[in-house]
Design goal:
- With 202 residues, this protein is an alpha/beta fold.
- The chain has a single domain, classed as Pyruvate-ferredoxin Oxidoreductase, domain 3 (3-Layer(aba) Sandwich), CATH 3.40.920.
- It is built from 6 helices and 7 strands.
- The protein has a 7-stranded mixed beta sheet with strand order 2-3-1-4-5-6-7.
- A hairpin with a 7-residue loop joins strand 2 and strand 3.
- Helix 1 crosses helix 4 and helix 3 packs across helix 4.
Length: 202
């Protein structure tokens, strides 16, 4: 611990005044929980204190799953659902509600959307920073089938503009029990193929 850096999305002067809050939305079987755990490890490797937990909509495969990750310079004691995230990640694009995004996302926050069900115009998000990736196509190209979590994290790192890709690679190596090379490839492919609604380069 003790590494000096600004939390993503904040200037140095804002560090310590508020924690970073990240919300994952997906479905059972997509690796939502594992994605939040790997990202927590990424932030730990950066010298920060992460805390993550998940809420399940049911035991069946395909049921909605929400996972919450808080990151701060000091130990995180708060443990409740995140209502106003800085970063909102939709691993299941059918769960996307544009009005909800606009009403809940913190000022200066951004949203990452898995586009595996096809592209949309996202008219309701015209004033929101939006990162887009076809995580399913990336996962399949990397040999992971429908397991999209590391692809989504590659896109997250690209969108963050604050996390070195090497930290994600190290976290994957430490966290993934099998198909390590394929998961690393998925993260790298997603990092390089992420696009932005506003046309930025990331």
């Amino acid at each position: 611990m003790g590494v000096v850096l600004a939390l993503p999305g904040r200037g140095v002067e804002g560090v310590g005044s508020s924690m970073l809050e990240i919300k994952f939305m997906g479905r059972g079987g997509q690796g939502v929980v594992v994605a939040s755990q790997i990202l927590a490890r990424v932030y730990f490797l950066m010298g920060l204190y992460p805390q993550c937990f998940s809420v399940f909509g049911g035991e069946r495969r395909g049921a909605p799953v929400a996972s919450f990750l808080r990151v701060d310079r000091q130990k995180v004691l708060l443990k409740c659902a995140i209502q106003r995230p800085d970063h909102l990640i939709y691993m299941a694009p059918d769960l996307l509600d544009e009005k909800e995004v606009v009403s809940t996302l913190k000022p200066g926050g951004w949203v990452l959307i898995n586009e595996s069900m096809g592209r949309r115009d996202y008219q309701g998000l015209a004033n929101t920073r939006v990162a887009l990736v076809d995580a399913l196509a990336v996962a399949q190209e990397a040999g992971l089938g429908g397991t999209i979590n590391t692809a989504v994290l590659g896109a997250y790192v690209r969108a963050s503009q604050a996390i070195p890709l090497q930290h994600l690679e190290r976290a994957i190596f430490q966290s993934v029990p099998s198909k390590v090379d394929q998961n690393l490839q998925a993260a790298r492919l997603a990092y390089h193929t992420t696009r932005f609604l506003q046309g930025e380069t990331g």
